[in-house]
Amino acid sequence: MKMGRFVIDSHVHAQRFAAGRTMQEKLKSGDSAAAPGSEEYKRLHEQLTYELQPYDNSARLLYDMECYGVDMCILTSAFNMTNELNVQIVKNNPGRFVALAYGDKYRQEVQRTGKSWSAAEAAKELDDLLATGNFVGIGEGFPQDPNLGSKHRRIDIHERLDEIAHFMAVARKYKVPVRYHVGLTMGYTTGYCRGSGANPETYNPMWVHDLAIEWPDVPIIFEHGGVQAWWWEKWYEECLNVAAATDNVYLETGTWWTELYDKPLRDPNIGAKKLLWGTDWGSSIPIEWQPGQHPETYVCQRRKTPPVRHQVDMFGWSLKQLGRLNIPQDDLNLILGGNAARLYRIKLPHTRIFPFVDE
Ligand SMILES: [Zn+2]
Q1: Half-sphere exposure (CA, 13 Å, Cβ side) for 86?
Q2: Distance from the CA of 130 to the center of ligand 1, in angstroms?
Q3: What backbone phi and psi angles, to 5 degrees, belong to 142?
């Protein structure tokens, strides 16, 4: 049986990289023949950011959607994934996908030419993409200066929030949601306020208190709801704190284990209306298991083990976490698709199948 009436995974990567051979050649050409897993991750991250070209992985995605009764996915980009390929996948499969706008061409140009990056230019690319009508939101995350690390510069809260303001203005213009990325995969080492594509906001969910006040008409979705990977709940707690104190902030939940749903569902200022299921399908982050411990399973990369090669079954794991909740089906339906349909203005097969008919 399907888990809900109209199920939307709001965070999916339908593009994948064939990294194996290129990486092996790189590793062989390095100083040490037998590089540890951590070195492999480091090199993979560099390649993902600068070199590797993605391929269309939608056949596996459609297979999983069929398996688990997922009606639609919101396609998002990362690394070198391209807008063009996502738009192509949307057009090849009518009614199954919508896509988010992601700054890719300008970033690649800056990397290639070494010219200086500006948030205004990056916002212009997003503006042009949204003007095509091919995109329903901005993500994942916000554009960043890809050369910050090589310039030996760091970025602080003031500078970064000023940059983000450019992207919020584009979202306001097109009345679309933005996605504020929170979390780390643990496999890829990520600089806090420096490095390729430094995004200090990923460590700082509390900054959204300011963004939510300054842009009250723009829906802001915490990607991964504070738990992209690993087992701690610090950023999750911070995401809840922001969502409870604002009216335009939402939480993505697909990487949450079952118990993480309890607090927001019981909080009268959060509730099912502010939760969106989104698994990060296609991101190559496996599930860890520690029987008898809390949490018993969680999403995480191992630094000493090479990146996972098979397609991790995110739908299966994530729907099992949600399926343990004994809550009204109408609330579950909101989390599983209704809220995403409302925020991204996705056309549904019928009106009045979710409890927001009067809004
Ligand atoms: Zn992702």
Answers
A1: 28
A2: 20
A3: -110, 155
Q: Please name the residues in contact with 19: beta carbons below 8 A apart, sequence gap of 6 or more.
A: 44, 47, 48, 52, 307
CA of 29 to the centre of ligand 1 (A): 30
CA of 141 to the centre of ligand 1 (A): 9
* 225 C-alpha to ligand 1 centroid (Å): 12
Measure 186 CA to ligand 1 centroid, in angstroms.
14
- Separation of 223 CA from ligand 1 center, angstroms? 8
User: Do residues 155 and 193 make contact, with C-beta atoms less than 8 angstroms apart?
Assistant: yes
SS3 state at 314: helix
* CA 344 – ligand 1 centroid, Å: 17
Quick one: 8-343 is in which CATH superfamily? Metal-dependent hydrolases (3.20.20.140)
Taking the centre of ligand 1 as the mean of its atom positions, its distance from the CA of residue 325, in whole angstroms, is: 25
Which residues on neighbouring strands pair with residue 99, listed in sequence order? 75
- Side-chain-side CA neighbours of 346 within 13 Å: the count stands at 29
- Tell how far the Cα of 352 is from the centroid of ligand 1, in angstroms: 30
Residue 277, amino acid? W
Sequential pLDDT tens for the chain (359 residues): 899 999 999 999 999 987 656 656 655 655 444 444 566 777 766 666 667 789 999 999 999 999 999 999 999 998 888 999 999 999 999 999 999 999 999 999 998 898 999 999 999 999 999 999 999 999 999 999 988 877 878 888 999 999 999 999 999 999 999 999 999 999 888 888 887 666 899 999 999 999 999 999 999 999 999 999 999 999 999 999 999 999 999 999 999 999 999 999 999 999 999 999 999 999 989 999 999 999 999 999 999 888 888 999 999 999 999 999 999 999 999 999 999 999 999 999 999 999 986 55
d(CA 343, CA 49): 30
199 within 8 A of 181, measured Cβ to Cβ = yes
Gap from CA of 224 to ligand 1 centroid (Å): 8
Compute the distance from residue 13 Cα to the ligand 1 centre, in Å: 6
